[in-house]
């Protein structure tokens, strides 16, 4: 990693208190949750049938084959032992320091809230929250994951689904507006753990108008040229080190 850039970024974080973080799957890989699109990620795993993972996570598939949908969920999207890593923890510290105003995340694992972050905008929903499609009654994740077949509501018998935006389903308009507002008002935008190829999430970047766009990624990405500062490496280490430097008043 380029240490000059690291210290420039540290200085920016020190000088600003209107920072927004926009994150993707790379934020949670250190917690053992696979990156959907990396070589070892979910989209490259066998699904056990001839369907693509995108199709299995679509609204059509869920409505047509709810049993198979749930089998797929239980095998691939349930990580009851996943714990927040240093990326999540660093962002909690940054919020407590009064610097970080919001986290916009494409992840559905809910680990930012588990870590203790307050203002989290979950763009694609939350895979640990379930609700009845008929009456709206809410259920804990165990109700759906640690059962067999299609989970049904114990009040009305409706199908219980997770609070995640499936393929073909629109992003919640309120969530979209909150994300645009947070990013549009930010003085500093840190984008981490995402290759920015996922629309419409990727389109959110256009709402950031300032000149302190910091990109943190494991590998160089095609969208690096959009960033003002690029840090390549393990995001859980980079964010942690940055926040440690801030806490200590920093050298350099
Ligand atoms: Zn119900």
TrEMBL record:
<dbReference type="InterPro" id="IPR026591">
    <property type="entry name" value="Sirtuin_cat_small_dom_sf"/>
</dbReference>
<feature type="binding site">
    <location>
        <position position="25"/>
    </location>
    <ligand>
        <name>NAD(+)</name>
    </ligand>
</feature>
<dbReference type="InterPro" id="IPR003000">
    <property type="entry name" value="Sirtuin"/>
</dbReference>
<feature type="binding site">
    <location>
        <position position="108"/>
    </location>
    <ligand>
        <name>NAD(+)</name>
    </ligand>
</feature>
<keyword id="KW-0479">Metal-binding</keyword>
<feature type="binding site">
    <location>
        <position position="36"/>
    </location>
    <ligand>
        <name>NAD(+)</name>
    </ligand>
</feature>
<dbReference type="InterPro" id="IPR028628">
    <property type="entry name" value="Sirtuin_class_U"/>
</dbReference>
<dbReference type="Pfam" id="PF02146">
    <property type="entry name" value="SIR2"/>
</dbReference>
<feature type="binding site">
    <location>
        <position position="108"/>
    </location>
    <ligand>
        <name>nicotinamide</name>
    </ligand>
</feature>
<keyword id="KW-0808">Transferase</keyword>
<dbReference type="InterPro" id="IPR029035">
    <property type="entry name" value="DHS-like_NAD/FAD-binding_dom"/>
</dbReference>
<feature type="binding site">
    <location>
        <position position="106"/>
    </location>
    <ligand>
        <name>NAD(+)</name>
    </ligand>
</feature>
<feature type="binding site">
    <location>
        <position position="135"/>
    </location>
    <ligand>
        <name>Zn(2+)</name>
    </ligand>
</feature>
<feature type="binding site">
    <location>
        <position position="124"/>
    </location>
    <ligand>
        <name>NAD(+)</name>
    </ligand>
</feature>
<keyword id="KW-0963">Cytoplasm</keyword>
<dbReference type="InterPro" id="IPR050134">
    <property type="entry name" value="NAD-dep_sirtuin_deacylases"/>
</dbReference>
<feature type="binding site">
    <location>
        <position position="235"/>
    </location>
    <ligand>
        <name>NAD(+)</name>
    </ligand>
</feature>
<feature type="binding site">
    <location>
        <position position="36"/>
    </location>
    <ligand>
        <name>nicotinamide</name>
    </ligand>
</feature>
<feature type="binding site">
    <location>
        <position position="109"/>
    </location>
    <ligand>
        <name>nicotinamide</name>
    </ligand>
</feature>
<comment type="function">
    <text>NAD-dependent protein deacetylase which modulates the activities of several enzymes which are inactive in their acetylated form.</text>
</comment>
<feature type="binding site">
    <location>
        <position position="195"/>
    </location>
    <ligand>
        <name>NAD(+)</name>
    </ligand>
</feature>
<feature type="domain" description="Deacetylase sirtuin-type">
    <location>
        <begin position="1"/>
        <end position="252"/>
    </location>
</feature>
<feature type="binding site">
    <location>
        <position position="29"/>
    </location>
    <ligand>
        <name>NAD(+)</name>
    </ligand>
</feature>
<keyword id="KW-0520">NAD</keyword>
<protein>
    <recommendedName>
        <fullName>NAD-dependent protein deacetylase</fullName>
        <ecNumber>2.3.1.286</ecNumber>
    </recommendedName>
</protein>
<feature type="binding site">
    <location>
        <position position="153"/>
    </location>
    <ligand>
        <name>Zn(2+)</name>
    </ligand>
</feature>
<dbReference type="InterPro" id="IPR026590">
    <property type="entry name" value="Ssirtuin_cat_dom"/>
</dbReference>
<feature type="binding site">
    <location>
        <position position="234"/>
    </location>
    <ligand>
        <name>NAD(+)</name>
    </ligand>
</feature>
<comment type="similarity">
    <text>Belongs to the sirtuin family. Class U subfamily.</text>
</comment>
<feature type="binding site">
    <location>
        <position position="37"/>
    </location>
    <ligand>
        <name>NAD(+)</name>
    </ligand>
</feature>
<feature type="active site" description="Proton acceptor">
    <location>
        <position position="124"/>
    </location>
</feature>
<feature type="binding site">
    <location>
        <position position="194"/>
    </location>
    <ligand>
        <name>NAD(+)</name>
    </ligand>
</feature>
<dbReference type="GO" id="GO:0005737">
    <property type="term" value="C:cytoplasm"/>
</dbReference>
<feature type="binding site">
    <location>
        <position position="109"/>
    </location>
    <ligand>
        <name>NAD(+)</name>
    </ligand>
</feature>
<feature type="binding site">
    <location>
        <position position="132"/>
    </location>
    <ligand>
        <name>Zn(2+)</name>
    </ligand>
</feature>
<dbReference type="GO" id="GO:0017136">
    <property type="term" value="F:histone deacetylase activity, NAD-dependent"/>
</dbReference>
<keyword id="KW-0862">Zinc</keyword>
<dbReference type="GO" id="GO:0070403">
    <property type="term" value="F:NAD+ binding"/>
</dbReference>
<dbReference type="GO" id="GO:0008270">
    <property type="term" value="F:zinc ion binding"/>
</dbReference>
<feature type="binding site">
    <location>
        <position position="156"/>
    </location>
    <ligand>
        <name>Zn(2+)</name>
    </ligand>
</feature>
<feature type="binding site">
    <location>
        <position position="217"/>
    </location>
    <ligand>
        <name>NAD(+)</name>
    </ligand>
</feature>
